[in-house]
Amino acid sequence: MDAKINHENFSRLKQKKSIRELLEFGIIVIDKPTVMTSFDVSDFVRRKLKEFGVRKTSHFGTLDPMTTGVLPIALNRAVKLTGFFLGEDKEYVGVMKIHKDISIEQIEEAIKKKFLGKIMQMPPVKSRVKRQEREREIKKFQILRKEDRDVSFSVECQGGTYVRKLVHDLGESLGIGAHMTELRRIRAGIFKEEESVTKEHFELAVKDYERGSERKLKEMIIPAEVISQVYNPVEVKEEAIGKLLHGAPLDDNSLIKKSNLEKGKIISVFAGERFIGMYKVVNEKNIFAKPEFVLQPVKE
């Protein structure tokens, strides 16, 4: 069942929204520089936009301080969607240094044997999570080129995969040792490198906004309704909006069209172009789904 938020009219929705609405429920994709932590970048965005009503921000997935690339930052009420975006697949390009010289063919053979598909990974010592093995899926791990002992690679993997640890474990498996020297994230879920803006360009857009021109800043903000491109959008009747905003479960009578989604699925719910919230399918009697997060209207 498709709601009306799709690729064809998403830019139209963005143009209809005011800059105030975008700042209240939007996402900016920053090209994270080195040295700064993901929290530093998130806090930097919050401080720069504070005088324009941005009270809080959060990032969609931690990057090492020395790792660059795609870091989506949620603004204000879009922060509530952070958990829904975190598990999405990520894509990286990087460089590893192997400690002894071997052929590309030997590296590729080791990858094929142990580092594709579902693998078990132990978080690194310095990670903030509990150190126990976790299953992660490596969808792609390709060697791009090799210059002496510097090996360029690309990886597409499940969210929560430690690429630095992946490289270390590959070196151990080869019996030669390896460590990562460069890493750049080029995709985080649906957010891609070409949508990202540098810290410097973001600052210039904020300065333009301070001077009265909103064009650059507005272009940078993605409406948080983009969640419909990650979780099945389901459309409800206009008359159901009131009770849903008060926390009522989503019953079959409220749906524009009957859905056959299975129990446990997370869905995004819309009334036309209006985002209502995130729900979990329960399929209990006439109750189709229960709310996980409901977007209340802004109080004037």
Short structural summary:
The chain is 25% helix and 35% strand. With 300 residues, it is an alpha+beta fold.
Keywords summarizing the entry:
300 residues, alpha+beta, Pseudouridine synthase, Alpha-Beta Plaits, Archaeosine Trna-guanine Transglycosylase, Chain: A, domain 4, 3 domains, 16 strands, disordered N terminus
Task: Give an overview of the whole structure.
There is one protein chain. With 300 residues, the protein is of the alpha+beta class. 32% of the residues are buried. It has nine helices and 16 strands. It has helices spanning 10-16, 19-24, 38-49, 82-85, 104-114, 163-174, 199-210, 215-220, 241-245, and strands at residues 25-32, 57-59, 68-76, 90-98, 117-121, 134-147, 150-157, 178-188, 191-192, 197-198, 221-223, 233-235, 250-251, 266-271, 274-284, 287-294. Strands 1, 2, 3, 4, 5, 6, 7, 8, 9, 10 and 11 form an eleven-stranded mixed beta sheet that branches. Strands 12-14-15-16-13 form a five-stranded mixed beta sheet. Helix content is 25%, strand content 35%. The chain has three domains: 20-86 and 191-224, Pseudouridine synthase, CATH 3.30.2350.10; 90-181, Alpha-Beta Plaits (2-Layer Sandwich), CATH 3.30.70; 231-294, Roll (Archaeosine Trna-guanine Transglycosylase, Chain: A, domain 4), CATH 2.30.130.10. Strand 15 (274-284) and strand 16 form a beta hairpin. The model is unreliable at 1-7 (pLDDT under 50). It starts with 9 loop residues before the first helix and ends in a 6-residue tail after the last strand.
